[in-house]
Known about the structure:
Blueprint: H1 15-33, E1 50-51, H2 53-57, E2 65-72, E3 75-84, E4 91-101, E5 106-115, E6 122-131, E7 142-147, E8 154-157
Parallel strand pairs: 1-4, 5-7
Antiparallel strand pairs: 2-3, 3-6, 4-5, 7-8
Amino acid sequence: MKNRFTKPSRFRVTPKLLAMMFVIGVFGIIAISCTKQAAPPVEEQEGVAVLSYTRFLEQGSSHYVINKASVSGDNLEIEISASGCSGMTWKVGLVDSEIIAKSLPIQRYMRVTFENMELCLAYFTKKYTFDLKPIRVQGYNKIHINLNNWHSPLIYSY
């Protein structure tokens, strides 16, 4: 019986193959060197509502209670209670989801951001005011604000 060995297949580099390898290499280099840029950070100003869908979705602290919430002129006034040492280091913000429900009046969805690094058992209540002008929508003069952790919509007329 004869052993039959097949000849190893020979790999041939053709001009077409070289051109294809060159194109793939160029696109690979471009893909590696062009990374997606992160969205610029949201500019926060104390006492001003921030419009940011990604910030709205972020997990925040739930260790606070909204005691009161009302709209007065162009401002949202809220009263918050939480544990702490003095409440002086609390960072409180207001974030809008940038989602507008097309009803009459239109609706927006907002939440309070709350950061408390104080590890004390005392309980404090503080009032905060936020400018609502950034959430205005051209062509409308009234917005229902659905505030997370608040029992009813707030009406903002402008």
